[in-house]
Amino acid sequence: MTSHRDQKLLPTIIGFLLFFFSTNIFASNDSVLDSVQNTAEELIKQQISLPEKGELKIEAAKLDNRLRFSSCSSPLAASLPGKQTLSGNVTVLVQCPTENWQLYVPVNVQLTLPKVVAAVALGRGMVLTPDKLSVQMIESRFQRGSSFDDPREIIGSKVKRSVKAGEMVQARDICLVCRNDSVIIRAGTGGLNIVTKGKALSDGAIGDEIRVQNTKSRRMIDAIITAVGEVTVKY
After folding, report:
1. 47 and 91: one domain?
2. Coiled-coil ranges per the record (predicted)?
3. Each residue of 15-35: pLDDT tens digit?
């Protein structure tokens, strides 16, 4: 027979048990959501090869703890639905095969790379010197065209298109060899190297093939730009 004192304690005991079990349920649910986030982030890490000197930041969105999922008795599976670029906001599908539930997880991906930017405003015709350039980490999704990661690659080149301070310097903005510039022509075969002077007949960047006129012979030749003010003829 239950005493009057026991009857008074009964609501307190029930309340304690409800609090204890509900706390465990919430803790378990938080653990499931943490696993979902970690699984989504890990999938992105596996998909991206980090370039040298690059920095990668991957962060899954915080999930609403009002979501209720049972613990998964098998490893969570993750995939990328549809065609997505792995930069900016990416959606990852995380599934629990055994408990038959799934969740789409937003993941923010930031891959930054060191790129040469204008330290000051660059005007057309300006010759690039070390004090006019700096290096900043730029998100890969904002990079367009051919760019540079070392200022030494373009010191001495001329500006063709104005570049604002802080903007990335791209190959189209400059010419390592500009039309009518005097250039050094290097040619060689069988261990014999010849160096002479010429005039560039068009603009170009590293690796571009341009027409050059040999100053001495007046002969027109095709040559590859190999450095600022320098071209190489390949036989």
Report:
1. yes
2. none
3. 333 333 333 333 367 788 999
H or E stretch at 196: strand 192-200
Which residues have a Cβ under 8 Å from the Cβ of 16 and sit 6 or more positions away?
A: none
Domain around 32: 4-111
Q: Considering only CA atoms, which of 142, 144, 138, 178 is closest in space to residue 158?
A: 178
CA 208, distance to chain mean position in Å, is: 26
Tell whether pTM > 0.85. no
d(CA 189, CA 26): 76
Cα 227 to its chain centre, rounded Å, is 27
Over the stretch 88-101, which tens digit does the pLDDT of each residue have?
A: 999 999 999 999 99
Collapse the DSSP code of 17 into the 3-class scheme (helix H, G, I; strand E, B; otherwise coil) and give the result. Answer: helix
What per-residue confidence (pLDDT) applies to 26?
Answer: 38
Q: Is the dihedral of CA 128, 132, 136, 140 positive or negative?
A: negative
